[in-house]
Amino acid sequence: MAVSSSSLPPLCEKISHKRYVRRAVDLTILGLLLSLLLYRILHMSQNDNVWIVAFLCESFFSFIWLLITCIKWSPAEYKAYPDRLDERVHDLPSVDMFVPTADPVREPPILVVNTVLSLLAVNYPANKIACYVSDDGCSPLTYFSLKEASKFAKIWVPFCKKYNVKVRAPFRYFLNPPDASEDSEFSKDWEMTKREYEKLCQKVEDATVDSHWLGADDDFEAFTNTKRTDHSTIVKVLWENKGGVGDEKEVPHFVYISREKRPNYLHHYKAGAMNFLVRVSGLMTNAPYMLNVDCDMYANDADVVRQAMCVFLQKSTTSNHCAFVQYPQAFYDGNPGELTVLQLYIGGGIAGIQGSIYAGSGCFLTRRVMYGLSLDDLEDDGSLSSVGTRKFVGEKSLEREFGNSKEMAKSVVDALQRKANFQNSLTESLEMAKEVGQCQYEHQTSWGKTIGWLYDSTSEDINTSYGIHSRGWTSSFISPDPPAFLGCIPPGGPDAMLQQRRWGTGMLEVLCNKQSPLIGMFHQKIRFRQRLAYLYLEIWALRSIPELFYCLLPAYCLLHDSTLFPKGPLLGIVVTLVGMHCLYTLWEFTSLGFSVTSWYGSQSFWRIKATCCWLFSILDVALKLLGISKTVFIVTKKTMPATMSRSESGSSQGEEDTGGPDSDSGKFEFDSSPYFMPGTFIMLVNLAGLASFLEPFVDEGSASQLRPSVWNSFFNTHDSPPPQTLDDVVSWVITNSFSPRKKFICSILFQAVVYVLWRERNARLHSSNPKGSQALVKEIQLLIRAKLAGLDRLNLSMPGTSEPSYLHTWFAFFQL
Ligand SMILES: O=c1ccn([C@@H]2O[C@H](COP(=O)(O)OP(=O)(O)O[C@H]3O[C@H](CO)[C@@H](O)[C@H](O)[C@H]3O)[C@@H](O)[C@H]2O)c(=O)[nH]1
Ligand SMILES: [Mn+2]
């Protein structure tokens, strides 16, 4: 590749922001937090345990805010000018594109097909790209769908290039009818292509319900008698771009692979799949750059590859040692506000330090860096130094590090020495490719330890990213509009919880493994603030403990006549702090075009994930450290959207409340998942505290009669009559919070908690009001009995317990 004289305008620019107002707000919040802590310290002696617990929690929150302030201080991003690429670079470098998929049910093949088609059709010479799909599900259906897709690609790719189609994932493109002003040739082509795409969808759908094609075609022989956890390596060339010159009608190389799986081997989930992809592509095309996307993340902009190349090929960034270019993850469904804001503010901040963190999808990486190269191994001009040569290129070290395939070793040396790609035939490499996919291939090599995607965390992205930055490399962050890649994210409910739990677990695993930012303080080349950024992410799960305690404190105070925020300066600080934080985060949301509802949804989501999912993450990692169980990667469920609500370009990140089917997104259904239990517990204890607080307002004589005026002063109940009894209170809150099924469990739990806590409180009140409190206890007992009696009719089943014994346990536990 030739990059001509530097007098021409640059291919990309680094834009650094100095956001003085934001810095001032960050510092003010930090100042308020510190004064809160100081006040607590000064008044420690006059106060009780609540004070100490509150102090500990607030110290943790302050520490997190300190990290956030450091991270956000000097945000930066890159802006690429792909239009300038052609006049500056005469021979574009090759790119290998990797799409891992793992489960044909949770990841519908048609979604994978769309992702692949969008990649095959990018604006880049077809002979310079290759697309590899790794299938951890070993699914003939996925293979069949991809095979059909490779046929459709011969129509789709030339169509996109001929008419310069913007969004090259067909399911998205065909949502909008063609412009009436377009010429008839276009309309004809459009109709024909759409028909072909519909045929493809139909074939995939038919194949899903009926597997007649399996036996009919020899090509599927490799899939006979296979199980997803027990099969040999499968490598199939779906399409080879033989003798391609890169013209517009060509389709790039397209390869399907599925690594060997055996029940007793650890397969390392996505990281293992990625390493196999690196090896196979090394043997087949050995491109110096690699793109990694999740199987649901289609390229939303045809220029993605060219944009990334602008960053890699710009002289100033080359000398800056840019290891990868990361695009933010964007979503076409779910409730994307939350992640978008996080990526832009926190992600943008990190990008201004040593560079963006690798986020697992939408990232272009350099092959050499993934082979474990560090900055010391290179000369100034980028060639391998003598140290690097000794470390990597010896025959013995190659075998030890990269495994015992001679061809693999040769391809590694070529990649490290930046030798031009060899153009041998893909089918010639099939046997070699199968060899490097065997279970024992990585045994006693450095794959997953220092080379490729790193193992020992379910967040292989953060883990691998830390490895790269700790070797001194930098990275770049580009956030174009429209977004470069779009995927899906679970809108809420157990699927979102599962994903959050996995992320929390994975990041905490990194904190505890040898990649931890807490170790190697002096011999690693990672910058201090970058280290803090990783620390911030990796302690996400740990937050659940202070969050949980902090949420329980108000109820505890109500029950024990204690105060969390006594009137006076402390209350002032807290009110200002909460108010400021709310306004600040609200502003972050609205300035990116998101609605107030979306902000509110995100705030509640934070509380839910912090108190619920991340608690499970801590448990996961504790069990792993104790050697009791291993952490697992459960694939997130992805769905093909029936209709798309946004405009074709997807340029606007804003959203409107249409009141349509999507208007529920972001709301959490309380569902049969255990994830919600900690959160429910918090709510119940707080309700119990509140109920207990209301107790003095209960009318003499009738223990359960609440004064309506008291109720009204607490809850504004315009549309429903104010609850009259304790039972009403319980039902009101529960009806307003949860779905019918869980509401029921909830009400039982609630009453149990109320009962236990009130018993304690009544014991204390006994002397002052013996008659009233005893009546109250009776009343509650009756309520619980009544609820439990109703339970038979509601068919409540808990996993592993039959109903009666479950009921019985409840009775026994509460001595009823
Ligand atoms: O055993 C496995 C498990 C997963 N995958 C693939 O990994 C990708 C990511 O999995 P997904 O379930 O979509 O996870 P998400 O939580 O949506 O993904 C984010 O978080 C993951 C780490 O937890 C990263 O791997 C992803 O790149 C990142 O986008 C998908 O394409 C899967 O097919 C495999 O190939 N093999
Ligand atoms: Mn995903």
Task: Write a compact overview of the structure shown.
The protein has 816 residues and is of the alpha/beta class. Manganese (II) ion binds at residues 294, 296, 487, 636. It is found in: Endomembrane system.
Walk me through the topology:
Layout: E1 12-16, H1 20-42, H2 49-72, E2 76-80, H3 85-88, E3 95-101, H4 109-120, E4 129-135, H5 140-162, H6 170-173, H7 184-209, H8 212-216, E5 234-239, E6 253-258, H9 269-284, E7 289-292, E8 298-299, H10 304-313, H11 315-318, E9 322-326, E10 330-331, H12 337-351, E11 363-366, H13 367-370, H14 386-392, H15 395-402, H16 406-416, H17 430-435, H18 460-470, E12 474-477, E13 485-487, H19 493-512, H20 528-538, H21 544-559, H22 569-591, H23 596-625, H24 677-694, H25 708-714, H26 726-737, H27 740-765, H28 770-791, H29 803-813
Parallel strand pairs: 3-4, 3-7, 4-6, 9-12, 10-13
Antiparallel strand pairs: 1-2, 5-6, 7-11, 8-13, 9-11
Helix pairs in contact: 1-2, 1-22, 2-20, 2-21, 4-5, 5-7, 15-16, 19-23, 21-23, 21-24, 22-23, 24-27, 26-27, 27-28
The structure holds uridine-5'-diphosphate-glucose (UPG) and manganese (II) ion.
Transmembrane segments: 24-43, 49-71
Binding site for Mn(2+): 270, 294
GO molecular function: cellulose synthase (UDP-forming) activity
